[in-house]
Amino acid sequence: MSVVELPDISQARAHELIDKFSSRRITVVGDVMLDRFLIGRVSRMSPEAPVPVVVYDSDEFRLGGAANVANNLRELGGGVDLIGVIGSDESGAQLRRELAAKGIHSTGLITDQERKTTTKMRVVTTRNQQVSRIDFESDHEVGAAIEAAIASQVEMRARSAQVVLVSDYQKGVVTRRSMAHLLSFAQSSGLPVIVDPKVPHIDYYAGAALVTPNHIEAESATNSRISSHEDAQRASAELRQRIKVESVLITRGEHGMWLDHGGDNGFLPASAREVADVTGAGDTVIATLALAIAAGATMPEAARLANEAAGIVVGKFGAATVTPAELKARF
């Protein structure tokens, strides 16, 4: 098997595609989350246990999961409709406030009285060192009534989109039935569907235009070791055939990306100049891919743009975002 780098993209072409982001609209469906950072100072260890004593300083809230994908799309200049499920709790209300602050409508969020809003509370120091994390969540699958509500939102909101993006964090929103309805609707509407997957749901995505597993997910899904471009090539081909999708993009961290696009295969070297935090990098990748595809990019061009966006975002702390100006500057 031959291993080649994907073709380069010119500055003019990259800027042309990025300029089109502002006129494109993406519908995001998936598991929304709230990231809460409890920030404090550490000056001593606890006498009760071998843990640091954190003196509280402040709270910070950020969008997580599918909500962070929506935020990435918005920061890149695109229009976005977000469909997800929250609980009837303070975290759900805070999530709505955070979305509003970013200019993202929350009318596509469905409240399930039986669930908690997925919240990840991280205790961090003022030097950005994480001390612990506490998760609040209900990760069982949503019931039939919520599935029907999700389907209704998809049919209403995706009509104005150019791409449907599924952000699956395996927190209960992406079920076999909800995914089957979404793919059927998208196919009948001529809309490409791209998926940030979870391995236990891998067979749900048959018919999607693109899935974007990271290398650990790709290893798990193919029961193989990926330590080279050749390994990635084999795994992506196996995945593409198994789940009947048009394209597979495996993100490999410091080893870059591998794209299998119906014979148009190749790798991209990692573009990060410095790495501060990889949190949320996958959200940035799939948001950039969605807007690039909506703007008319080929799959290799979309991968190039997404690779550069990932290189920017891992240089920032937390689930960060990228602006069109920052992305243009990489070319």
Description:
- The structure is a single chain.
- With 331 residues, the chain is of the alpha/beta class.
- The protein has helices at 11-20, 66-75, 90-101, 144-157, 176-189, 215-222, 229-243, 281-294, 299-313, 324-329, and strands at residues 25-30, 32-45, 52-65, 79-87, 109-112, 119-125, 130-136, 163-167, 193-196, 210-211, 247-251, 257-260, 266-268.
- The protein contains 10 helices and 13 strands.
- The mean pLDDT is 94.
- The longest helix has 15 residues, at 229-243.
- Helix 2 packs across helix 8, helix 4 packs parallel to helix 5 and helix 6 (215-222) packs across helix 7 (229-243).
- The strands form 2 sheets. The protein has a 9-stranded mixed beta sheet, with helices on both faces. It has a 4-stranded mixed beta sheet with strand order 3-2-6-7.
- It is 36% helix and 25% strand.
- It has one domain (11-33, 63-117, 138-329): Ribokinase (UDP-N-acetylmuramoyl-L-alanine:D-glutamate ligase), CATH 3.40.1190.20.
